[in-house]
Amino acid sequence: MRRPLVMGNWKMNGRLEGAKVLLAEVAAGVSGLNATEVVVCPPFPFLHLGGVQGGIAFGAQNVAAEAEGAYTGEVSAAMLKDVGCKYVIIGHSERRTLFGESNAVVARKFAQAQAQGLIPVLCVGETAEERDRALTEEVIGGQIQAVVAVAGAAALADAVIAYEPVWAIGSGRAAAPADAQAVPHFIRALVARLSAEVAAGMRILYGGSVKAQNAPELFAQPDIDGGLIGGAALNAQEFVGICRAADTAARKGS
Ligand code: PGA
């Protein structure tokens, strides 16, 4: 069985004191949930808080596409490893659209993360326009194939994929559970063509306006193994509620 994963993406929000409080509240709230893996991804300057809270793993929101050198402002995968990160989000739609990250750049970041033993969380998703034009599978297939071309199919065994429809991110309008399930199902089938074993074991998250209230139905879907949470991850009560929903779904064996 795949262990559920709930990951909070704090994006570029908050200040250090608030981050400490949020972390402590989340740690207290999830301490009894052992079926679910709980991860937070704070901004780079707060990653040093990672050693402080037991039971919560840390991830970064981005990583450089190169190993090291003259790349002003970039942070390498090795540096993230040094400060105790376990995960790194790769190819979030905000990175793709606001910072121009192409599929090729995303694939190089994925490979850098894995070379240092970090677990990449590869974000994929279609825009509203692409969905309207029935291009969802083509777009997401392309996003995944670009990574496979660089890192190889076997690399997906040590990775997580987060399906985040761009139109659902920060919109307050999550995908309907059946739509949220359809794409992870497609992704698993796509990966199964490369390796059935990798496909069966790979965790696929849903992200986009997940809240404590809609989490139970989303996490009950057979191909959704947890969530990548934005806005609701900044509120301890909401985030803990989402983690609880994942734990309950895991106990029900879905
Ligand atoms: P949201 O963001 O939960 O605020 O929609 C999700 C994300 O960007 O990962």
Q: How would you characterize this protein structure?
A:
With 254 residues, the protein is α/β, with parallel strands linked by helices. The protein has helices at residues 16-30, 77-82, 93-98, 103-115, 128-132, 136-151, 177-192, 196-201, 215-219, 236-251, and strands at 5-9, 37-41, 57-60, 87-90, 119-124, 160-163, 203-207, 226-229. Helix content is 41%, strand content 15%. The protein has an 8-stranded parallel β-barrel, surrounded by 4 helices. Helix 9 (215-219) links the parallel strand 7 and strand 8. It is globular and about 45 Å long. The N and C termini lie close together (9 Å). 44% of the residues are buried. It binds 2-phosphoglycolic acid.
Give the neighbour order of strands across the main sheet.
1-2-3-4-5-6-7-8
Question: What value does the Rg take, in angstroms?
Answer: 17 Å
Describe the main β-sheet briefly: 8 strands, parallel, barrel
* CATH structural class: Alpha Beta
Helix content: 40-55%
Distance from first to last alpha carbon: 9 Å
* Spans where pLDDT lies below 50 across 5 or more residues: none
* Quaternary status: single chain
Strand segment tally: 8
Q: Which shape, going by the Cα principal axes?
A: globular
Q: CATH superfamily membership, which one?
A: Aldolase class I
Order of helices and strands: EHEEHEHHEHHEHHEHEH
CATH architecture: Alpha-Beta Barrel
**How many alpha or pi helices?**
10
